[in-house]
Amino acid sequence: MVSQEQRIQLNFYQKKDQTSLENYYLTEQQLKYSGNPLDCLQDCVQDNERHPILIRSGEEVAGFFVLHSWGGVKDLSENRNALLLRAFSVNSIFQGQGIATKALAALDLFVNANFPDVNEIILAVNHKNAVAQHVYMKAGFKDTGRRAMGKQGVMYLFSKKVNPET
């Protein structure tokens, strides 16, 4: 019997992935809390501190997020060795399969391999987005107690330590 368990991989976006992102669908509810990947890609093109990352389930693009270095972090933390996780989403057709949880579990190894000087990942999550808060906490993120204002209101700032030897 073949396992139905999906193999999740995190990869840097490449131009060949453009079509997959053009077919990426987020509901209106998802778009309230996350950016459209194509719009986020434009921001990445204009800012070399933003790194677009794909979440693959097998060969398919199942999710997307951006890792943003100091330019994204500086308003939220004084840690120059932190990355801001932003625009995290899972394509609607892959929702409910545990992909977000698996991707966040793979994030530490990805950061260790590709950003060896980074020792913290931070993110801002909307105070009304309880589902995302739960997923982030399950993945080891902790509420720092700090708050910021976002487009949809108050954002909780979460943090997770990585690369303990840095």
Key attributes of the depicted protein:
166 residues; alpha+beta; Aminopeptidase; seven-stranded mixed β-sheet; 7 strands; globular; Acyl_CoA_acyltransferase; GNAT family N-acetyltransferase
Characterization of the model:
The chain has a seven-stranded mixed β-sheet. The model has no long low-confidence stretch (mean pLDDT about 95). The longest helix has 16 residues, at about 100-115. It has helices at about 20, 30-35, 35-45, 70-75, 100-115, 130-140, and strands at about 10, 50-55, 60-70, 80-90, 120-125, 140-150, 155-160. It is built from six helices and seven strands; from the N terminus they run E-H-H-H-E-E-H-E-H-E-H-E-E. The chain is α+β, with helices and mostly antiparallel strands. It has one domain: Aminopeptidase (3-Layer(aba) Sandwich), CATH 3.40.630. The N and C termini lie far apart (about 45 Å). Its EC number is 2.3.-.-. Pfam families: Acetyltransf_1.
